[in-house]
Design brief:
580 residues; mainly alpha; elongated
């Protein structure tokens, strides 16, 4: 009674690992969340298995008696079987040698049969065949005979599955069925292998409900064993999938994958089946995380066959996920750049407008005060001619202050030009940083060995597009600030050297160079840095245009810098005011 109660409680453990809502789809989602948490804690499960392996190795290191040594080596095979194929083969081979040394030929034959099964599972068919051929079939009985028939059936099943020759395929299938029949004849109907192969036989015959009935029996008999539960759940997934019951088969393949993770298993067939399903339903992020976890497990398990099986799924999921990420990142950085540039422009514009508003208010107040002074002076002139000299001096002083106000406006223009230059240099800096970021992403992706994605990103023309956009912003901003620049610039050139813009909203390279000079950036190296040309190219453009100047060649650039500047209020106007 106590044993039955323990078995019932163990059977309830898988059902308690997730909440089971009434809706089947929600139930699968609950398992997915458990899988996500289990992947985050995968190292804990692997360390638990490695801890058991370490204890067994320490036990072997104490040079125990042959029987104890055999037991430890066999248990090491059981621990390594789902963790590392190479190590599992090593320890089951050691167990076979130890059994042979003790004279227990039945145990040695059993270990050889198990080793053959391990080899055929990892694509080493010749090795499996040689091992099975070395076993004396006539001397086998009991558990050794069961493992012998199972290994034979598995070997021919694998050969039949991967054979491309129809004649051989049929032959291997017949041999597989022969050995399955032999296996069933020597096992009890309650034996897990009997239930497993009967379920498979029903599945192959298309009787999926019959397969499920055997699966139910198998679950009742062995579902309390964590490693057995993962396999039973996987077979259950196959049955429900063939019945077309998506809610059930997605749940059971997820339960099998969850059990594999918690068992510290690296041979994860369920997980990559689940990743493939998630990819087909559009859950690319979770599919990529699951298949990435499977790849890490395959590296630990050390079989090329698993790598070949999962590679197509990995390539498809990884390609789609990386394309989505690249597209999202590109859009995101583009939006960030545009918003940042726009914000900087708005801030600069607000700062400039505020400064100008304050200056205009000061100028209006100053002009109002001067008008009051002029009115008072005119009244004084009517009352007394002897105050004429004093009034003239006051008017002269007033004219000087007006000139100072105009000079202040000139200074405002220079500040404006300074901030335009700063804005342009910042735009150029953004382009360089985006280029650096693109190279960094290429390096990271290359580190993951995604060659196709790497080639795609390597040919990316993001920098050219950003540079073209920067030039468009520069041209439109400059033309808006200096609408007569091109016309006044052409007035400085001979008629045969004047420049006609194909598009009135865009500047040519030559005009753009002198636009930068107008803004105070006259260093050829800085101009070359901004326009991404060589310094020699900038020199050639400047020399070519200056050769067509209608004015003194040495004064040409100074005259360009004066384009659009307000005219100074000179002393003549002050004198006119005095005369009035």
């Amino acid at each position: 009674m106590k044993v039955s109660l323990v078995r019932i409680l163990l059977l309830l453990v898988p059902a308690l690992c997730v909440s089971v809502p009434a809706v089947a789809g929600v139930r699968a989602d609950s398992v997915y969340r458990c899988i996500d948490a289990a992947i985050d804690s995968a190292d804990v499960y692997f360390q638990a298995r490695e801890g058991r392996i370490k204890a067994l190795k320490e036990r072997l290191g104490r040079r125990p008696a042959p029987a104890v040594r055999y037991e430890a080596e066999f248990k090491l095979w059981e621990e390594y079987r789902p963790l590392s194929n190479d190590s599992a083969i090593v320890y089951i081979e050691m167990a076979a040698r130890t059994a042979a040394a003790m004279g227990d030929m039945a145990a040695a034959a059993k270990c050889k049969a198990i080793e053959a099964y391990q080899c055929s599972s990892s694509g080493m068919y010749m090795e499996a065949h040689d091992l099975l051929s070395s076993i004396d079939r006539q001397g086998l009985s009991g558990d050794a005979l069961v493992h012998y028939y199972r290994s034979r059936a598995h070997l021919y099943g694998e050969l039949g599955w991967y054979s491309a020759v129809p004649r051989l395929k049929r032959r291997y299938a017949a041999m597989q069925q022969l050995y399955i029949d032999s296996l069933l004849s020597v096992t009890d109907e309650s034996h897990p292998l009997y239930l497993q192969y009967m379920e498979k036989r029903m599945y192959d015959a298309g009787d999926y409900y019959g397969a499920l009935r055997y699966n139910d029996k198998w679950m009742r008999m062995s579902g309390h064993v964590p490693t057995e539960y993962a396999i039973i759940a996987y077979y259950r997934y196959l049955d429900y999938k063939m019945l077309g019951n998506e809610a059930e088969w997605t749940y059971w393949v997820a339960m099998s994958a969850l059990a594999d993770i918690r068992n510290g298993t690296t041979d994860q067939a369920s997980m990559w089946e689940l990743a493939n399903h998630l990819y087909t339903v559009g859950d690319d992020k979770r599919a990529y995380e699951y298949i990435d976890f499977v790849c890490g497990c395959i590296e630990k398990f050390h079989t090329s066959m698993r790598s070949m099986q999962v590679l197509p799924v990995l390539s498809t999921i990884s390609s789609k996920y990386q394309q989505g990420m690249a597209s999202t990142n590109h859009t995101l950085w583009l939006l960030v750049t545009v918003v940042s540039l726009f914000a900087m422009f708005i801030l600069a514009l607000l700062f400039y407008v505020n400064r100008q508003r304050k200056r205009l208010a000061q100028a209006r107040n100053e002009l109002s005060r001067k008008n009051e002074q002029l009115t008072a002076l005119n009244a004084d002139m009517k009352q007394a001619m002897d105050s004429l000299d004093k009034s003239n001096r006051q008017l002269t002083a007033t004219g000087g202050r007006l000139n100072e106000a105009v000079a202040g406006l000139d200074e405002s223009n220079r500040v404006k030009e300074k901030y335009i230059g700063l804005f342009l240099r910042q735009c150029s800096s953004y382009i360089d940083r985006m280029e650096a970021m693109r190279r960094e992403q290429l390096a990271l992706i290359k580190g993951k060995r995604y060659a196709e994605l790497y080639d795609m990103v390597k040919k990316h023309d993001f920098r050219d597009k950003e540079q073209e956009e920067l030039f468009e912003i520069f041209d439109s901003t400059f033309i808006r600030l200096f609408p007569t620049f091109v016309d006044e610039f052409n007035q400085l050139l001979r008629p045969d050297s004047r420049i006609v813009l194909p598009d009135q909203s865009k500047l040519t390279t030559g005009v753009r160079i002198f636009a930068l000079i107008r803004l105070g950036i006259d260093d050829s190296s800085k101009i070359a840095e901004f326009l991404h040309y060589s310094v020699n190219t900038i020199y050639n453009y400047r020399a070519k245009i200056k050769n067509g100047a209608a004015v003194n060649r040495d004064d040409f650039e100074d005259l360009v810098k004066a384009i659009g500047s307000p005219k100074s209020v000179g002393g003549d106007k002050a004198g006119s005011a005095c005369g009035a």
